[in-house]
Amino acid sequence: MNNTNTDPLFIAQEAVCYYPISTIYNSCPRYLFYALLLASCVTRWTGWLANVFLGAAATYAGTAAFQAFILVASPAKMEAPGPVTIPYLSSNTSLWHNFPELITETTRLMVQPGALELDSDAVLAIVVTGYLVFLPLQCWSRILTHDRARNILRNILFSLWNILMLAGSICALVYGSYNTKVPTQYMFCYPDLPPLDEISSDGWQASWRISTWNDSVWQTFSNITLWGQIGDICYSPCFNSSQILRQPTSLHMRVATRGSEIAHSHKFWDRVLYSKRYIYSLIILCVILNCLLLTFRFLPYRSRIPSAQIMVIWKERKKIWRSFKEEIHSALVDSQRSQSRKSEGDCSSSKHAAWRKIRQILSLRFLKASLHVLGDVAILFGLLFSMIISPFTIIAFVAWVEWCIYNDGPSQEHPQQVGQWSYLVSIGLLLTSAAILTLRYRLASSAELDQNILQLSQQLADLERRRDVQAGTETITIIESRDDAAET
Known about the structure:
This protein is α+β, with helices and mostly antiparallel strands. Helix content is about 60%, strand content about 5%. Keywords: Membrane, Transmembrane, Transmembrane helix.
């Protein structure tokens, strides 16, 4: 089925088949998400303002996390590869000018339709960044850590959200590895009709694949009628592939160029292998530190570190240091007294004196005090190190992942299009509504205030009744447990 070298029936060249980044994850919404996270950290002590910023950012990140779940649960199924014979072309052919990625010096290719899902990079950027911000916030924020009994529901909600972000991050990382496994794609064209720079799918028709890929390609170019039905200049087997959450018409193909990172994703990943290792190592270290700090907050461990706020620790530094010395000194004095009472009547040789000092250091009281001090010092250094490494990790990861997204190709929409600036307008409207609600008592009339007072009084009476019922239930439970204990 091979034609002559001078007049081939068709040619094959390397191509890139991909689903572009969805408009919801384009540059404008992503940068707005980063800005919301930064605003949440800066305004976390203001109450309603931080709630607006954090709620908007969490909602956006939650959408990305659920998409990561769906992508991992339903990955694209690729068919088994099939061989396609092509006309032989020498490497010095004159077709290089129109076909920059022309396949030469071979008569056989392996075709396996597949497409890159570029949403994977954007979803990874959102969920990992969200997790790297939400987790330290739960560790450091005074609003979230002060008065645990009062904020128990908020802590539970924030913990569940952190679990959602962690699960989304894991799924995004798992799905990101799928893109590196997408095989090389090819497009088949007439040698006198070079393709456009980018082609979008009009929807694959079942009649375009006759039996095998080899028969389909050869019969399409042998029959001008069949070629005219494909809708494009070139025959693109990858348009036969599908992806969950995507329309078939959103699939794009472009000619692979040697300078395109998306075209040579394997080469790009190989080139950034070491930076990728560093970024992931920083993420793992940051997560471990913050999880340990969060665990210490919920364990029954009485620490002398007064707060997670660095300014509070700095102001109380002398008191903290004094408490360390006093505990060690008190434990050492108690050990000395105990050893002195035990050693009364013994000879006071230098050998026995040295042994008494060793037993003082190895006493249970001194060891407990030492471990307590070491635990507080470890918490203090972990907290300080976390405050340094967490912001650095977030900045490094955002810079790295945005560079990866930049190399994926241009955005579908520009910032001036409504699909991009509508998110900013939505946040502005939400912020305006929240601000108006905070001023409702100052702007309300006397009748409205009286109505609000009546409603609040009814809610307060209902809460008091519920408290009395719960207190009575707890009292009955305690009495029953005491009676059972007395009977036994």
